[in-house]
């Protein structure tokens, strides 16, 4: 598989946890990530 | 009375009512999802990007309706976050408010996929997850901005729900009826709801029942392991209630109901019931054909949220052993007169209230704009709250 497709949801969420550009507060980033995980489990 | 005292009293009333003691007040509540926007004259679609506006519209109905408890009570699906993930199985309905689930839009597994599911359910679920959330099929640099969009959308959704929950709890003193960390969801519902779809799961039960049995066995393994790791004595409080619900169950014959739901539910959950935990059983469809099984469970350990059953028939069958959560139908709220609605509520209180084992709630969630005439809903809850004190 091409490298650009070789990732998982966890990889993207880990990148988002370390990314201050969309939310400066690390605790809020973690909260939103947890909420998204919970929401996706329901779909 | 302080709001803390009000909450404590309401919790005690739930415990008493479900333990067959007459409470100081019979608990009155409902399952509510998106109907409150209609009462406020607002379309959810028009306020969903603004948590404060969403909150203000959502809570307006509490000006005219008093609840002791809710089941749900907030918005249940973050539609915009799902769409950012490339998942369109949920969308806002044509009324601009109700969140609808579109099973026909879902890309389900085929019958040929069962061997892969049975061989490695975790890998199979991951594959299906990626198939269904199409953002994850994009190159990483295109997928990442979509994830950020989904996270921002979930932030807006969560902020609105947190405001609604905080208002219900800390201003109105309303308590959730469930919330214990013990719940049972029969593994065949993972096929029915998520992997294979409703109609094909039912067809598979006729055409390839042993394959379904194998799939259910592997899908349920993780949950069985979790239950085995828990000590029921750590979950013995009678409130909040644990939960389970019917999805495929109402379509099964009594024999299949036992095989795919009741036997495992009893095996896994009865130790917790014997320790003191109660279960809220959310009906979808009818209980009556298999209600006799519940006499095997400890008295007072179950609360049935009745859906399509005749509650008077259910009460005759099991009302001396478990609690009925009933009192008005959404059909009456929608199409009846105020008099018809309040007469029905009175008949329910007269029949079910003596001796405990009754909590009041409508038979279905309040979802769509047309689900309840406001004048009926207001009269019903006024009547229920008055009768609940007698």
Descriptive overview:
The complex is a heterodimer of chains A (43) and B (390). By secondary structure, chain A is an all-alpha fold. Chain A contains two helices and no strands. Chain A is flat and about 35 Å long. The termini of chain A are far apart. The mean pLDDT of chain A is 91. Chain B contains 17 helices and eleven strands. Chain B has helices at 3-18, 35-40, 44-47, 51-58, 79-84, 114-119, 121-132, 140-170, 188-195, 198-207, 209-219, 221-229, 254-275, 311-318, 330-335, 338-352, 374-387; strands spanning 29-32, 69-72, 90-92, 99-101, 175-176, 178-184, 241-245, 279-282, 302-305, 323-328, 358-362. Chain B has a six-stranded parallel β-sheet. In chain B, strands 1-2-5 form a three-stranded parallel β-sheet. In chain B, α4 (51-58) runs parallel beside α8 (140-170) and α16 (338-352) packs parallel to α17 (374-387). The longest helix of chain B has 31 residues, at 140-170. The model of chain B has no long low-confidence stretch (mean pLDDT 95). Classes of the chains: A mainly alpha (43), B alpha/beta (390). Chains A and B meet through α1 and α2 of A and α7 and α8 of B.
Q: Can you give the helix content of chain B as a percent range?
A: 40-55%
- Find the structural class of chain A using helix and strand composition: mainly alpha
Q: Are there runs of chain B of 5+ residues with pLDDT below 50, and where?
A: none
Average pLDDT of chain A, to the nearest integer? Answer: 91
> What kind of sheet is the major sheet of chain B?
6 strands, parallel
Tally of extended strands of chain B? 11
User: Using only CA atoms, what is the Rg of chain B?
Assistant: 22 Å
Distance between the termini of chain A: 27 Å
Summarize the structure.
The complex is a heterodimer of chains A (about 45) and B (about 400). With about 45 residues, chain A is an all-alpha fold. Chain A has two helices and no strands.
């Amino acid at each position: 598989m091409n490298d650009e497709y070789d990732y998982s949801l966890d990889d993207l969420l880990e990148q988002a946890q370390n990314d201050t550009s969309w939310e400066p507060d690390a605790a809020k980033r973690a909260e939103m990530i947890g909420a998204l995980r919970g929401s996706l489990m329901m779909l | 009375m302080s709001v803390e005292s009000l909450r404590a009293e309401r919790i005690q009333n739930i415990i008493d009512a479900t333990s067959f003691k007459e409470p100081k007040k019979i608990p009155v509540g409902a399952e509510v999802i998106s109907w409150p926007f209609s009462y406020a004259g607002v379309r959810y679609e028009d306020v969903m990007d603004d948590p404060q506006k969403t909150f203000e519209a959502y809570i307006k109905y509490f000006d005219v309706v008093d609840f002791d408890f809710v089941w749900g009570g907030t918005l249940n699906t973050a539609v915009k976050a799902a769409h950012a993930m490339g998942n369109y199985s949920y969308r806002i309905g044509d009324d601009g408010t109700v969140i609808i689930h579109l099973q026909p839009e879902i890309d389900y597994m085929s019958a040929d996929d069962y061997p892969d599911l049975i061989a490695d359910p975790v890998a199979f679920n991951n594959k299906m997850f990626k198939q269904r959330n199409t953002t994850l099929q994009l190159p990483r640099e295109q997928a990442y901005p979509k994830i950020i969009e989904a996270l921002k959308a979930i932030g807006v959704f969560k902020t609105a729900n947190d405001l609604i929950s905080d208002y219900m709890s800390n201003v109105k003193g309303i308590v959730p009826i469930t919330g214990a960390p013990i719940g049972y969801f029969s593994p065949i519902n993972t096929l029915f709801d998520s992997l294979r779809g409703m109609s094909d799961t039912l067809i598979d039960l006729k055409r390839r029942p042993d394959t379904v049995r194998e799939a259910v066995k592997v899908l349920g393994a993780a949950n069985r392991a979790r239950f085995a790791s828990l000590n029921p004595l750590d979950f013995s409080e009678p409130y909040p209630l644990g939960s389970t619900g019917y999805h495929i169950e109402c379509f099964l014959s009594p024999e299949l109901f036992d095989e795919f739901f009741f036997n495992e539910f009893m095996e896994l959950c009865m130790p917790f019931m014997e320790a003191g935990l109660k279960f809220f059983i959310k009906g979808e469809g009818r209980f009556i054909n298999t209600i006799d099984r519940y006499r095997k469970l400890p008295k007072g350990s179950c609360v049935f949220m009745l859906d399509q059953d005749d509650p008077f028939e259910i009460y005759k069958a099991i009302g001396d052993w478990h609690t009925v959560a009933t009192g008005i139908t959404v059909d009456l709220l929608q199409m009846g007169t105020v008099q018809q609605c309040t007469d029905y509520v009175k008949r329910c209180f007269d029949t079910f209230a003596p001796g405990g084992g009754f909590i009041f709630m409508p038979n279905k969630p309040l979802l769509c704009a047309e689900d309840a005439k406001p004048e009926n809903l207001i009269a019903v809850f006024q009547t229920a709250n008055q009768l609940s004190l007698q």
